[in-house]
Design goal:
This protein has 327 residues and is α+β, with helices and mostly antiparallel strands. Helix content is 23%, strand content 22%. Among the domains are: 87 residues, no CATH class; 87 residues, no CATH class; 53 residues, no CATH class. The longest helix is centred in the first third of the chain and has 53 residues. About 14% of the residues have low confidence.
Length: 327
């Protein structure tokens, strides 16, 4: 019988690698879960620490005033890495725990507290009528009038256009301003905003019945609508724009040329490189005493003329962004 040599076969080696990979995966998952629980626990501890600090503030500042009629709610907020009184920006809460990334604490005249604080991943929330802090992934917001907790609301108006530098994909709640057609039923609020603002669903495109389109702002500069109050040295108004949502074509510049010995030399505006002889000729032809004329004459070897090109605009230095519209 043939004696087996010591060592691993290829199959055994592969089996060991697979087992080690599974163990590493399990270990990694466990580590992530431990870190996750620690992050949630730390935020919860900070929330209770802030509530306790709020109770101390109530005893020191609000309780002595309970003999007077007092319905005021005291609001604290994270500002510049400090939990401060929103009213005066001076009174600070000293609490046990780490400073949250953002958050608010409200104390009413009875000493009841509401809290909504968030770190990188979680939010810890408690309404004015509750005693237990709840840690959750979604954001929360304190209603300043009732002290109740609700989901954090996005108050950005529908139809707001933003400049987004993150990537070629718009952020949540926004669509790229690329002229794409969508179903009205998919984005009813934006479609309705376009209809109310411009008279129809299909102002930018679509059939106006079941579909609409977002504005196409690719390659466009945005400009303020209306006429401003800035005046030049002569008293003329310097700036004006079209109505909101109306596209305006670029300004095309005239290009001035000098016709010399049958050759075209551009000496201003847009065109090929000029030459010394053309520039000198232009100086003499543009003089008031020379009786210069506009137009190109075949009977003259030199002439000044104005030509309207098909392209050529003034473009400052710029950086492209992704224009997005709120839906």
């Amino acid at each position: 019988m043939e004696k087996r040599e010591k060592g691993f076969t290829l199959i055994e080696l592969l089996a060991v690698i697979v087992i080690l990979a599974v163990v590493a995966l399990i270990a990694t998952t466990s580590i992530i879960q431990i870190i996750d629980r620690a992050e949630k626990g730390a935020l919860e501890d900070s929330a209770y620490g802030i509530i306790e600090a709020g109770s101390v503030f109530y005893i020191d500042h609000i309780l002595p005033e309970t003999g007077k009629e007092n319905n005021e709610r005291y609001n604290f907020e994270v500002i510049e890495n400090k939990f401060v009184n929103v009213k005066n920006k001076e009174e600070k809460l000293a609490f046990k725990g780490s400073m949250p990334k953002s958050g608010k604490l409200q104390i009413n005249a009875n000493g009841d507290t509401a809290i909504a604080i968030c770190n990188r991943k979680y939010c810890a929330c408690k309404s004015i009528t509750e005693t237990k802090v709840v840690v959750q992934k979604t954001g929360c917001e304190i209603d300043e009038e009732t002290g109740e907790i609700g989901t954090k609301k996005d108050t950005t108006p529908i139809g707001t256009v933003i400049s987004y530098m993150g990537s070629t994909t718009p952020p949540d709640g926004y669509l790229s301003c690329d002229g794409t057609t969508y179903k009205i039923s998919d984005y009813p609020k934006l479609a309705e905003q376009i209809k109310e603002g411009f008279g129809s669903y299909n102002y930018y495109g679509g059939n106006g019945t079941t579909t609409f389109a977002v504005p196409d702002l690719r390659g466009e500069f945005l400009r303020g609508a209306g006429t401003n109050n800035h005046k030049s040295s002569t008293g003329a108004l310097e700036g004006s724009g079209s109505s909101v949502g109306k596209h305006q074509s670029a300004t095309i510049h005239d290009r001035v040329g000098v016709y010399v010995n049958g050759a075209d030399f551009w000496v201003g505006g847009y065109g090929p490189a000029s030459s010394t002889s053309a520039l000198n000729n232009a100086d003499s032809l543009f003089g008031k005493s020379t009786g210069f004329y506009l137009g190109k004459s075949s009977s003259n070897t030199s002439a000044v003329y104005v030509n309207q090109p098909t392209q050529g605009t003034s473009r400052p230095t710029n950086t492209s962004v992704l224009y997005c519209i709120k839906y």
